[in-house]
């Protein structure tokens, strides 16, 4: 990352009020990055921002990444701090699922309005936000991290909408990497994590890792700047063999 400026580098992180987004924001804050963070729930984001401000400059803007004006405010805030050097598209949703712990619905029963929102949050919004900050990223020789999922490549009953959105984001990441060879574009599968989303989906959390446990995988990407591609956190952490080919580790 280009750090030869008068300001610390700037990271823009969506879905940063809890879970992986918050843990990654903490790590970047400790490492000296300035932060622009966003999430939909204002009080949760405010609490996260108070924590992060112990370490660095933080601009916290609550709102939905689906909203055009909100994305524009995020890009403007990052520009005022010196320009985005890292964009982390972490926000996602299980909208359309029964979040009362019941079985996740099959695609045959998936409410179409919820499916539309799943794709708006998980695919359209990351692409749109990337478009807005691309000039900043180019200026800094920056990087984009799109948070993926094993559901993008594995067929899990009930996860069709979420998985399809993540698969679309993976492909968009691969295309962006080809079109922007001076940048790094990483699609990262963090693996199963103990998050509220997984709990709300009624999944077993026993084998899931705490989000903080996978943050070193993201740090390794920023440190080593490997080629653009799709990575699994477990492989980056040495917990499984690297795959030669489409998925790098």
Summarize this, please?
By secondary structure, this protein is an alpha/beta fold. Helix content is 42%, strand content 14%.
Under CATH, the topology can be stated as Rossmann fold
The largest sheet is: 8 strands, parallel
Number of helices: 8
Helix content: 40-55%
Q: How many strands appear in the DSSP assignment?
A: 8
Distance linking N and C termini = 20 Å
Please give the structural blueprint:
Blueprint: E1 10-14, H1 19-30, E2 34-38, H2 42-52, E3 58-60, H3 68-81, E4 84-89, H4 112-140, E5 143-147, H5 160-179, E6 184-189, H6 196-200, H7 215-224, E7 229-232, H8 233-236, E8 247-248
Parallel strand pairs: 1-2, 1-4, 2-3, 4-5, 5-6, 6-7, 7-8
Would you mind describing this structure in some detail?
The structure is a single chain. With 249 residues, the protein is of the alpha/beta class. The chain has a single domain (10-248), classed as Rossmann fold (3-Layer(aba) Sandwich). 42% of the residues lie in helices and 14% in strands. It has 8 helices and 8 strands. Strand 4, helix 4 and strand 5 (143-147) form a beta-alpha-beta unit. Helix 4 runs parallel beside helix 5. The radius of gyration is 17 Å and the shape is globular. It starts with 9 loop residues before the first strand and ends with a strand.
